[in-house]
Design brief:
The chain is of the alpha/beta class. About 30% of the residues lie in helices and about 25% in strands. Strands 4, 14, 15, 16, 17, 18, 19, 20 and 21 form a 9-stranded mixed beta sheet that branches. The chain is globular. It starts with a strand and ends in a 6-residue tail after the last helix.
């Protein structure tokens, strides 16, 4: 589900008018629904109740500490990829003991900090990294909990930049080398506790088939590791896709409700029904690492129309949000539904490019898109922007970062103040 809908012709997040938020806090503005995040976590957690499991939210998708606090309060764990993200988890009240640390390039300082905080496990991505963690743990007089990330060489059939489970990707250890890597860790690394196995094949998967293929391929390996190394968990990664288009019918709060089974991507129940029979016989703890699924449809980027520009080839709607605020369309060819905050059903739609103020040809949020006519000062909402939106934002063209708002029913909370020019330039010096 999601909680963005038109009420009396104006787009709301839960029960808060987006026009009101834009007028109060300015634009560009990220707005998130606490109701949606809570619903997604609760339904996913419940669907897997036949398994001993832990939902470890992928912090990189949206790392605001208010979002992390919401998930921690629901009982969730976390999947991090940097020491900075661990600091965020701790500041948000999250439990390091329910936190896994992934990523191919962990530094000494990050490993030392994670060990000092008692994280649940390092997900190591190479034999060299295992030796690195072993050395640091020995110097600290600690035993480091580790798992290895296996690369199952399964094609997730997603965008090449977010595919992570094939042999040519930088992530994980090749499937045919993984047993030797575990053996080497057990024999040569006395400061490691071998705790589990991890995999992750990619992001924005809209079919359950790649998950099933990967699980069927890796489960026999898990069984061997249970026998040889007595592992305690199997992490199946994340990657569940979300819907990036919806009718937004007034009062309809169900994202998939009006679509047939063949038209909608992977649902929670389809995912759980397919994987539970494969994983249950292992009698291991199952970890999963959803990110986009948890927060993607929970967020929107609200932007103001600066003006319309008509050329010989195209009509452009110029807005105050750019690729520095939301880079997915430029980087991943990501598609986002963009709608007027004031619903217009009287005028025919026009084909336009929706472009930002950044001095790059790639600075667009949509191209050749039907859009009802808009005027200077109108607000647009870029939907499904809760994941990999603000976390990938930048100060390119010396543009301050947007504010972030978390809506809870009728209440709207500022969870990040808009960055000022002084904030942006802080720390710079003339030599």
């Amino acid at each position: 589900m999601h909680s963005f809908r038109y009420l009396q012709g104006q787009l709301h997040c839960e029960n808060v008018n987006l026009n009101t938020l834009a007028e109060q806090h300015g634009t560009p503005l990220y707005v998130y629904s606490k109701e949606t995040i809570t619903d997604h976590y609760t339904r996913l957690d419940s669907a897997l109740n036949e398994l001993d499991h832990l939902v470890c939210y992928a912090v990189k998708a949206n790392s605001n500490i208010a979002i992390l606090h919401t998930i921690a309060a629901l009982g969730g764990g976390f999947d991090i990829v940097s020491g900075g993200e661990l600091h965020r988890v701790i500041r948000a009240g999250g439990n390091p003991g329910k936190t896994t640390f992934a990523g191919v390039g962990k530094t000494r300082a990050e490993i030392e900090f994670a060990l000092s905080q008692g994280i649940y496990c390092f997900n190591a991505e190479s034999e060299a990294e295992l030796r690195h963690i072993n050395q640091i743990a020995g110097e600290m007089g600690k035993t480091a909990p580790v798992s290895l990330r296996v690369n199952p060489n399964v094609d997730a059939k997603t965008h090449k930049y977010i595919s992570t489970g094939k042999s040519e990707n930088k992530f994980g250890i090749d499937f045919d080398r993984i047993l030797d890597a575990y053996a080497a860790a057990a024999e040569d690394c006395p400061n490691l506790e071998i705790r589990g196995l991890q995999m992750h094949i990619g992001s924005q998967l809209t079919s359950v088939d790649p998950f099933v293929e990967a699980a069927n391929k890796v489960v026999p390996l898990v069984q061997q590791l249970q026998e040889r190394h007595h592992i305690k968990f199997f992490s199946i990664g994340g990657g569940m896709g979300i819907v990036y288009q919806d009718s937004l019918d007034s009062g309809d709060k169900t994202w998939w409700g009006n679509q047939s089974e063949t038209e909608r991507p992977l649902t929670i129940q389809t995912y759980a029904n397919a994987l539970t029979p494969i994983l249950a016989p292992l009698k291991l703890r199952i970890l999963l690492e959803p990110g986009r699924f948890m927060v993607g449809n929970a967020g929107a980027l609200v932007t103001k129309v600066l003006h319309n520009k008509k050329g010989n080839a195209k009509k452009f709607v110029v807005i105050d949000a750019g690729m520095n605020d939301l880079i997915r369309p430029a980087l991943y060819e990501g598609w986002h539904q963009i709608v007027p905050v004031n619903k217009d059903t009287t005028n025919p739609e026009e084909i336009v490019d929706i472009v930002g103020p950044i001095c790059e040809t790639g600075d667009f949020l949509a191209q050749d898109r039907p859009l009802a006519p808009v005027a200077e000062g109108d607000h647009l909402a870029v939907l499904s922007a809760g994941a990999y939106g603000f976390t990938m934002a930048s100060n390119y063209n010396t543009r301050p970062l947007p504010a972030e708002i978390l809506v809870d029913g009728t209440q709207a909370h500022v969870i990040r103040e808009r960055q000022t020019i002084d904030d942006l330039l802080k720390g710079e010096r003339i030599a």
